[in-house]
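Following up on my earlier thread - several people asked me to post the actual chain instead of describing it. Fair enough. Here it is, all 177 residues.
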Amino acid sequence: MSQSRQFHLTFVVAMAENRVIGRDNGLAWHLGSDLKRFKAATLGKPMIMGRKTFLSIGKPLPGRETIVLTRDKTFSAEGVHIAASLDEALAQGEALASTLGVDEITVAGGGDVYQQLLDKCDRIIMTYVHAAPEGDAFFPAFEHLGFRETAREDHPAGPRDDHAFTIVTYERQIDGT
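Reply from S.P.:
Thanks for posting it. Predicted structure:
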């Protein structure tokens, strides 16, 4: 966690071997087994996502306070918080985290939101999808930014999964630790 903030910012993302995270405003695969990981990582926490990501889901996810980041001043959706800037989204996330009694704000995409918040990210919970599908949304390079792997779980493709996958948790190193 950074010294200046009291809340962790955690990216929760699934990325293919070619850095693809989406196609046509949706996922480029189906991993039913990984949805449990996503739910466990985000449940009970504020969750920031871009408007296109929210529209691809189509509704607020139960048990999470969703903050939709958008430049569209006319956008509204029932059951979500709207933010017009990164600073506003983070401020809403911190207020909601405080109200919920948690110390973590999650980020659920898309590619532009991940890119814009990468310098503020403390943790990445990454599902590496063992495939290289076509896509039009990509996860930014983060490997050079001082993250270290702290956990890894390999998963074979189950009956509800298009591909095998590996879940890796990264923590940002602070002051060389």
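The longest strand covers residues 8-16. That should answer part of your original question.
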